[in-house]
Amino acid sequence: MKKGMLLVFLFLSGALLSSCAPRYTSLLEEGGIPYIIIEKASVLDLQSEELKNVPPAKRKPVIAIYPNSFLDQTGQRKSNGQFALFSTAITQAPEAFLIRALKHAADGKFFQVAERVGLDSLTKERQLIRSTRETFEEDNSVKPLLLAGLLMQGAVLSIDTNIKSGGIGARYLGIGSSKEYREDLITISLRLVSVSTGEVLIEVLVSKSIISVGISQDLFRFISNGTELVEIEGGAAENESTSIALQQAIEEGVLDIIKTGIIRGYWEYEETN
Length: 273
Prior knowledge:
By secondary structure, the chain is an alpha/beta fold. It has two domains: about 1-40, no CATH class; about 50-115 and about 145-265, Rossmann fold, CATH 3.40.50. It contains five helices and eleven strands. The strands form three sheets. Strands 3, 4, 7, 8, 9, 10 and 11 form a seven-stranded mixed β-sheet that branches. A two-stranded antiparallel ribbon has the order 1-2. The chain has a two-stranded antiparallel sheet with strand order 5-6. Strand 10 (about 200-225) and strand 11 (about 230-240) form a beta hairpin. The relative contact order is 0.17.
């Protein structure tokens, strides 16, 4: 009887723990070494459908984004709950999200983005083309680079952690369940600057919440006439990606810049029949 009860509890505990790993498709063994098969990689689309579906521009503005033009000014490090790690709290290449938002606005029909992040490599390749053509061909001309009339700059201003937190739980006859949540906040700024005058044409601040939720369940029972205690615990947590939250904030900022530019007459929507 005692052995049977233990087997039942072990089976239940295994089922409970396995249910707390929804992203793992299977656990296999190959050559005696266990490994986990996770979901396949996927190409990320824009988080904002509104940005993707804005009307095209009548005349596409040319925008340049230089390296280090979108800085992390928080100086925060990742935390494991006890101490800060060497890794930064957010990605150090947020301009990649900004370039993607600009390129995919109106399904790629609103902005022209001039390459400036890899300008050194681009310049070297153009010099190589020119020198090769001078040696082997008569025509050594290379098309001029796309010139930008606007610069886009920005910064991550703050990451406020644990601005809201709470939870709820209950226990009855050795069966307990609880749920906890936490809310963080990331704030960014974007600026649109005129190359000809240096004037800041549009400036916008965007804040985005980052939600974390955790659930846990536990069960305990006395067996063998109350002389032994068996406990089962399980839980799961879901944390919203900081990178995805940053991407959403940037896309919302670009969308606001597009709308503000329309109001102030910096560009126009393409006329549709």
